Amino acid sequence: VMYMEGEKNNIPVEVAMSYNTSYSENLHSYVNNINTHEGGTHLAGFRRALTRTLKSYAEKSGMLEKEKVLVTGADGFIGSHLVELLLKEGFHVKAFCLYNSLGSWGWIDTFSDEIKSNIEIHLGDVRDYQSVLESVKGCDYIFHLASLIAIPYSYQAPQSYVETNIIGTLNVLNAVKEVDIDRLIPVSYTHLRAHE
To answer: pTM for the whole thing?
Structure first.
């Protein structure tokens, strides 16, 4: 139970509130010791002031801020769609895209300028630990999608797949551990074949 009392312009005010987890409210307001059972402007004004005060407090304390999410492999087809979804849900998104000399952000290049302006882009390579470490700093969640796909080509260039998919994932794991982030979501996708 919270109880407050005060006075302004010789007008005393008393408020007692109790928090509970139900969805129903039980409000009793009084003016000049008379129960205003229909509510009225006093009750409406109190509700507005209480809502405004609590919202202001929540904004100032950062309680309403959505968390920051890093998406590795954000320049890929699935990663870019995840970035778009997270933005729509109100998250702050940092997109880890593979550095290239063209300055391309992969599939993120197809987004509107308005959407792109809301993304923090980190250009790097998951094979480079320092690049990964810098990207995870300040993040609350990590969605790890960065990988090489195209299974048939992995037979032609296995070392590049090991370096990206295994060493890259190890770099993400070590960076998350070093920065002490406890929410890592590794995302894996492949095709399965039925053997006859």
So the answer is: 0.66
